[in-house]
Write a structure and sequence with these properties.
The protein is mainly alpha-helical and 183 residues long. It contains 7 helices and no strands. α2 packs antiparallel against α4 and α5 packs across α7. The termini are far apart.
């Protein structure tokens, strides 16, 4: 087993560690910071807050689960085939995602439910990327190409997930109410 075959398994672990913070704290944070967000970012809050306020934790967790399944598939395929280009691109896109969260905190100027795990995961991700470059699994051109491609796919996928979350939220609320009514 080479270093890369060990390193690949860190991606799903780091992803879930990071996203647990979002799953656990997002709804409470939005509830407690609604007026601050409306005051500080009026245009953005009109667009985003209704989306988050009507989203259940279950729906948010479903979106995270979808991303986790994709990351797991990419990890398993990379491990089984020893082809790491897509994995590297996805991992770098995830790392950029963590950097974006750090900038979000600077813009919002207070805790947001992604920053603690972003700060913990970011140095680990940078170390892994450095190791990948040292190992020279792929050319720098290939790494950059796959990273850009995966970042674009990640943005599209997050957009897709955010479209499905309200639908799932409505479904889960109806399901919960149906169960209460039947009892």
């Amino acid at each position: 087993m080479n270093n890369m075959q060990v390193i690949v398994w860190l991606f799903p672990i780091l992803f879930m560690f990071h996203d647990f913070e979002e799953i656990i704290f997002m709804r409470a944070w939005i509830h407690n910071n609604r007026s601050y967000i409306c005051e500080r970012f009026p245009a953005l809050s009109k667009k985003l807050l209704p989306h988050f306020e009507h989203m259940t934790t279950s729906a948010f967790a479903l979106g995270v689960a979808e991303e986790f399944i994709l990351i797991s598939i990419i990890t398993i395929v990379s491990y089984m085939t020893n082809w790491y280009d897509l994995w590297i691109g996805s991992f770098i896109a995830f790392t950029l995602h963590l950097v974006i969260h750090c900038f979000q905190v600077l813009i919002v100027r207070k805790y947001i439910p992604v920053i603690v795990t972003s700060i913990i995961c970011l140095p680990i991700c940078i170390y892994i990327i450095k190791q990948i470059i040292i190992i020279q699994i792929s050319s720098l051109y290939t790494i950059i190409l796959y990273s850009i491609l995966c970042f674009i796919i990640m943005i599209i996928n997050i957009g897709f997930i955010f479209k499905l979350m309200p639908i799932f939220s409505q479904w889960i609320v109806r399901y919960e109410n149906k169960q209460k009514f039947e009892q």
